[in-house]
User: What shape does this take?
Amino acid sequence: MADVSALLKPLKLRHITLRNRVFSTGHASGLAENGMPAEAYRLYHGEKAKGGIGLTIFGGSSSIAPESPLAFSQIDMSGDRVIPHLERMAETVKGHGAAVMVQITHMGRRGHWRSTNALPMVAPSYSREIAHRSFAKEMEPFDFARIRGNFTNAARRAKTGGLDGVELLMAAHQLLDSFLSPVTNKRTDAYGGSLENRARFPLEVLQDIRETVGDDFVIGIRLSGDEMQKGGMGASECLEVSQLFAESGLVDFLSIYQATGDTQPDLARMLPDMTWPSAPFLHLASGVKAQVDIPVFHASAIRDVTTAARAVADGHVDAVAMTRGHIADPHIVAKMREGREDDIRQCVGANYCADFGGHTGLCIQNAATGRERTLPHILPRAETRKRVVIAGGGPGGLEAARAAIQRGHEVTIFERDAAFGGQLNLAARVPQRENLAGIVRWLEAQVRKGGADIRLGCEATAEDIRALEPDAVFIATGGDPIGPDFEGADLCTPAWDILSGKVAPHGEVLIYDEMGLMTGIGCADLVARRGLNVELVSADRAPGEETGALLHVAYVKSLYDHNAILTPNMQLSGAYRDGNALIAVLTNLYTGAEEEREVDQIVHEYGTRPRSGIYDALRDASRNLGEVDQTALIEGRAQDVNANPDGAFALYRIGDALVARNTHAAIYDAARLVRTL
Assistant: This one.
């Protein structure tokens, strides 16, 4: 068992004492409602406090001015209407023993003018950010006074609302660090040129805030330890900046970050996923810690408590944020205190919380995160113990088993393969995605610990399931790959067969992807890394379009590095033999023009079709005939469909056995059905 004692020591921070050295950074949870941290936002952070965290900082990039975009669906700190919400947040988080702060910022040029009340954005110099595609005007003298007032008013609201402090974001090339960086600050007046001049406006803002809030309020800064950008501040100049702020006497802690937000590759460095090693930028914070006399915090891909504990114990930092770790498991600290480190659901670095879907803040493996209003992280025991049978041991089936055990039910789970995991095992074979196997490992460990009747290497039949006399049956058998629908389809190979090792890639390989998810682009990366010539053809505007913007960076970079050809806007429309040659026919979706490729292998990814045989065999014997009351499901109420009064059990399909989606959907299907079982 890891020695985590260093993390559990208290830390004095001006007038408050954090109960431990674990915190959560300000980040875009996507839970703000009309710009306010209402109930969902409050419960999300309250769960971390309930789970033992020392400090939670909410409202990443919370805007302090009307022309500062709420670019990440964040909190509007520009008016007093936020104060009652801050009061309720403080009451909830402090009520569970944690400290609470809000991160405030002016987004500067980082956003789009349409989201700024149609006001012009402002920056130190006239410039445009590539990521958000809008220009910002150069700040004029009257802008300086107004924005200083915006910052002080936001800090006043935070104090009035009962928070312990504020953190100013000086990273990602938002307004304040845009003054610091020579990339974005081209001014020739007293606010440009030397580092002293470039730091003038941020220091004026800090001075105004301190005069407003007094001594009994914490002020921190989150800033870059290395901008990692040509012409930007390197590690040495960022260290000078850190020392300057630390010696000002205006700041109580420094939280060291990295990179900027100007482009998608820059963002990928700011939010490193599983393609990066653990704690890749700890050295930047460690370098600052050696040179300043105030507490230094750090957060960046520290996913396990062992690494976090060593970072503190060895003196690299004073506190460690496991922000994405707490999205996966908000009870990390409580489990450490209880000696249950093995029960911590460890973040695998999938970046689903930051990179996927229309709703940020969701976790690929924890369906309750962000849904605390309707889905508890710890399910209560059911009043009546039931017998639950699950067919299929992928992530959905395992989550159904885990949740049913937590509810106190008797569980039997069948899996036709010799190991649990389903399609997630294939996903974990994709280069740079091996960490996904951690989702299965944790779920399996919880199911085994809970005492489930596990039947591996056993494909369930309807007779097997009926013999167990179940009260509820979950079909989680996944799906089978869909093949192309044209003459010559038999000449093509499913991407699954390449990933599983059933078929070896060879020669010149054309990979056609109609899904835009990880299977296609990941298969292409695997083949290209073996030294083969690869063309990845996509029906989308860009290959891997649905993989998430940050993850997309890692795979496109790798494909370029391995000389792969990327071809968008084309559809695989045929395949045939011409003597010994294999010909792939491609059709341009915009013009209808056809092209041909002579290759050695055609690989395809069209998604999956539900494997429904056992569901079909059981449906007529079920009480609900497989129907789900969708309104009850959404509202978190128990299922009570009784379409067949003579039925012996309730029957549900989840995950890809219902319809092709993703790991999160399969787990969420299971979690919200079982929670009321």
Notes: The two ends are 35 Å apart (CA to CA). The longest strand covers residues 55-63.
